[in-house]
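Subject: Sanity check before I submit

Could someone independently write out the structure tokens for this chain? I want to compare against mine line by line before I put it in a report. The sequence has 133 residues.
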Amino acid sequence: MNTTLLEQELTAYFATLLNRTVDTDIFRGALPESVSQGICVRITNRISGTLFDLPTFNIQILGKFQSRADALSLIEAFAPPAVPAYGTALPHFTLPDVQFAGDPIGPYTAPDKGRILHFASINLRISVLTAGA
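---
Independent answer below. Compare away.
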């Protein structure tokens, strides 16, 4: 399985869900050091030994914001019907199951380059079917 392609397609999917632009205010893998506000989508690990033996991954959506309201908005964007989700189609993958992997974390504050910023983290567990990827 091409996990780089999967992470790219997940980033594009969440960009659409959150009304964001890839490589402008939502990023794959990590937030660039130069970004003072944005969201990143990253695969954190593959889980082995899951039901039906589908490839299953933990992913994290991490937001860094100047306002607490923006951090809360990120958490609220994942309320039902966004998650749980079933049968989500991406260009090269289908996600039969998207579930929370624990409760959302945040909003919380942390120093960043001398400023106090607001963060939120959404942790999801996804199963993946490939379509030639």
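---
OP: Matches mine. For the report I'm noting this point. The chain has two helices and seven strands.
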